[in-house]
Every structure is written in structure tokens, then in C-alpha cells.
Q: What sequence folds into this?
């Protein structure tokens, strides 16, 4: 019971800004996904797959076709957090997504006024999320979430609605910036005045330091807590091990250091990817409260169908349907010839390359050649 009370303090936590525990639906602050957790939750700019449903909806713009994820968080003192989400490319410039998160605090002891146990009761929280992302320019995407939030304690329940908004900007082929405003919505309360949702502003950067090494950072300003800093890194092992790509991750965050100790700032994890499937794990210490273990499974149908789409082109006055990968190869040949014959400037080349990447990545084509040429061959995006 003591640990349960400590958990409640942690969820609504903090210091400074508004008084601790004044926000409702504090479970919304428990992040989804083992990759983000292992990287110190420095994920606002790094989110580029289905996990963006939680971290930054604008990041869904990088989804090529269809992705799904299922996650489990064995949090603290018997508290478990589950989530599932998907993202689907709707058109060349738009992606839609949805997710559900569920937190269960387990059995809570009910005592009478004399201190005797009179059974147990349950409590759980749920959030339904609908997401939309749109690429406005080749290097700029925006997105938004609509949330339905429900909390239940025994037979009582409360409901609220909220919005998230986010953006991602590719400053260079190696540097991406992101920002979000989260949980702007109605208050949540049972038989008392509704408590505000845990609103927060986040901004971050993701930098591809070199091939295989991604560095990330975030700054987070929660309206009911103090400012926190987040740093993370992801290293891709250069060669596959029995057909499996290994990813090592680590992170550091200041969010809970003041009341849980220095070790709570550190997080570690790994990913193992083969084909379209990736398994990830993250370990996060919470001082005397124990350890959090996150597991998730991600399926990217982008890989299963990459380049298999067809595209219709005009040829000799007739409409001809051909494989997108084949058309992409011809487009890159045309690009190289155009650069050589017309002596295009670096800026002109990048404009054309970004359009090629936007067009063909949406069709599931491997556009790594175009990304390598973008920005003078400085490397792919984060």
C-alpha cells in the first residue's frame, strides 16, 4: 500500500509549477514504446514510425505503408501499462493512425474505519487516440491527435477529451527538429471540480551523427511539474547477426532525479529486427520503487511490400502501368543526366531529390540512393 501511494505521487508528481497531483489523467505521462523509453524519452524529433502516435503525430508522415505495434510495460508495484497502435498511409501526403493505451493498478485494499480489510477494489485508466499527419513540404510535416480519456475507480468513472499537435522539420539531411503540445483538453473529475489534464510542451532534435549512430535530445515543460531534459542515443550494430539487425540504446533524463535519485535518470535497452518484425526491450530504474521493464513488438508491412506498388505513367501518348521501383530507377538515371547536362546548383538538386523521395517513399520504394545524394551526400535523415 505504501508503494501504491508513492506511485500516485510519482504519476502526478512534481515539484514546482502547479502543486503535485493537481492534474487529472496522470497516466497520460507514462510513455509508450521500449525504443523511446530506452533513449531517455528524447523522442519528439526522432519519432518516425507508428510510435509517433504517442510522441509526436507529425512523425507518422514517415510511415510508408502500414505499421502496427503492441507493447507491455511492467511498471511499478504491480501497475501494468499496455498499448497497441497502427499507422496507415492514406495518400501520398497523408497518414492516419490510431492507438489505445490501458493502465491497470491491480487490486487495492479496502479498509474500514477500524483498519480491518474489507476486500479489494480495482482501478484502471484508458486512452483512445486518433491521429492524422500531413506533409506540407518535402522537409516539413504536421500532425494532430484526438483523445478520449477515461478513468475508473471501482464503480465510479470520469471522462475527458484532449488534443495534441506536433510538427517535424528537416533542417538538413542529418538534422531533424520536432515540437509538440500535448493534452490540451477538458478537465477530468469524479464528484469534485474537474482537474486539468497534464499539459506539456516538448521540443527536440535528432541528429544522425554518422551512419548507424543517432543522437537525440528533448526539453520538456510540463504545466504541473518542473522543466526536464532528455538525451538519448541509438547505435546500429554494423553487421547482422544470423540475419538479425541489433540496435543498442541508452538515455538520460532529469525528470525524476530530485525525488527518486540519480539512478532514475538512466535507461538502457536494445532492439532486434529481422525482416518486417522488430522486438524491443527497455529497462528504467525508479529508485526505491524498483525497475520498469518495457517490451514491444513492431510489425512494419512497409518492408514486406517495398517497391511492389504500381504506378501509371504517360509513354508515347498512352497510359502505361509499371512497377514503382522500376520507375524510380529510371527517375534517378534522369536526375543524374540532368545534373550533368544543366550544371544544377546544390539547392536545385535538393529540391528535385526531396520530391523524388516524397513521391517514391510513399509507394514503399527503397529511396536510399536519393537520400545519399541529398545535401551533397551527407547521409540519410535521422
A:
Amino acid at each position: 500500500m505504501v508503494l501504491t501511494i508513492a506511485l500516485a505521487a510519482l504519476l502526478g508528481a512534481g515539484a514546482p509549477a502547479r502543486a503535485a497531483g493537481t492534474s487529472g489523467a496522470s497516466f497520460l505521462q507514462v510513455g509508450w514504446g521500449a525504443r523511446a523509453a530506452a533513449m531517455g524519452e528524447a523522442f519528439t524529433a526522432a519519432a518516425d514510425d507508428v510510435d509517433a502516435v504517442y510522441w509526436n503525430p507529425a512523425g507518422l508522415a514517415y510511415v510508408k505503408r502500414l505499421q502496427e505495434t503492441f507493447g507491455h510495460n511492467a511498471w511499478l508495484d504491480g501497475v501494468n501499462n499496455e498499448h497497441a497502435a497502427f499507422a496507415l498511409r492514406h495518400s501520398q501526403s497523408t497518414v492516419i493512425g490510431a492507438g489505445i493505451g490501458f493502465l491497470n493498478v491491480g487490486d487495492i485494499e479496502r479498509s474500514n474505519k477500524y483498519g480491518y480489510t474489507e476486500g479489494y477494489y480495482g482501478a484502471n485508466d484508458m486512452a483512445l487516440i486518433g491521429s492524422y499527419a500531413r506533409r506540407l513540404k518535402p522537409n516539413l510535416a504536421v500532425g494532430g491527435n484526438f483523445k478520449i480519456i477515461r478513468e475508473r475507480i471501482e464503480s465510479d468513472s470520469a471522462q475527458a477529451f484532449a488534443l495534441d499537435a506536433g510538427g517535424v522539420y528537416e533542417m538538413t539531411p542529418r538534422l531533424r527538429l520536432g515540437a509538440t503540445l500535448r493534452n490540451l483538453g477538458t478537465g477530468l473529475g469524479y464528484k469534485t471540480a474537474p482537474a486539468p489534464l497534464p499539459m506539456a510542451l516538448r521540443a527536440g532534435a535528432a541528429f544522425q551523427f554518422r551512419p548507424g549512430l543517432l543522437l537525440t535530445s528533448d526539453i520538456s515543460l510540463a504545466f504541473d511539474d518542473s522543466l526536464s531534459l532528455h538525451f538519448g542515443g541509438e547505435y546500429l550494430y554494423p553487421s547482422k547477426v544470423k540475419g538479425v539487425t541489433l540496435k543498442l540504446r541508452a538515455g538520460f533524463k532529469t525528470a525524476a532525479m530530485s525525488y527518486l535519485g540519480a539512478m532514475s535518470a538512466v535507461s538502457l535497452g536494445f532492439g532486434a529486427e529481422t525482416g518486417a518484425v522488430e522486438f524491443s526491450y527497455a529497462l528504467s530504474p525508479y529508485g526505491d520503487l524498483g525497475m520498469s521493464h518495457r517490451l514491444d513488438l513492431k510489425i512494419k508491412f512497409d518492408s514486406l511490400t517495398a517497391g511492389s506498388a504500381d504506378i501509371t505513367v504517360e509513354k508515347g501518348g498512352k497510359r502505361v502501368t509499371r512497377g514503382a521501383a522500376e520507375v524510380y530507377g529510371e527517375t534517378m538515371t534522369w536526375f543524374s543526366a540532368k545534373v550533368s547536362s544543366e550544371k544544377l546548383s546544390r539547392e536545385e538538386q535538393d529540391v528535385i531529390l526531396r520530391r523524388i523521395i516524397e513521391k517514391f517513399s510513399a509507394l514503399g520504394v527503397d529511396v536510399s540512393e536519393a537520400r545519399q545524394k541529398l545535401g551533397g551526400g551527407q547521409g540519410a535523415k535521422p
